[in-house]
Structure formats: C-alpha cells, structure tokens
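Table 4 source record.
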Amino acid sequence: MDKIENDTFKNLLFDKPGLKEIDLSKRNKGEHPDLKEHTQYLVKIEETWYAGTFSKLWYGWNFNNYGWSSYQLWYGKEGADDWEKIYEIIE
C-alpha cells in the first residue's frame, strides 16, 4: 500500500483495535527500540498517512513505502519534525 488519504481513513485509524502507537520520543537520530523489520506500520509524515514496513540499514531505520521512495526515521526539517505518528499494525 502507498499513500492513505486523510479524509478516507482518519476516523478508522484511531478506532481500530489492532493498532499500537509507537512513542516517537524514544527516537535517537535514526534509531528506535520499538521498531521491527517485517512488521506492518501506519505512519503519518507531513500530514499524510502511509502504510508499509521499515528496514534497518547501516544509518538507522528507513520507512519503505513513502511514495516511490523511502523515508529515513531521522529526517525532519530544520526546527520541525516531519514524523507525526507511527502505529504498529497488530494482527
């Protein structure tokens, strides 16, 4: 899956029982103790929702389903943070 439109899924995301919120304050640059490979996540980056997985690379975690590319966990604009939410999908 790629981009998830905000209006379509906005209410479902917060009411769905199979989601576990990941605490973004635990990030240390590109590292996070609660992320796992081969696990599905819903993430909100720059006000847009995406569904996909993370890969662990030499520089840290990388989200694989950011449109045609990927997005590194440590990315963020100067003075702001592009990462708004991360939810692990619990099956």
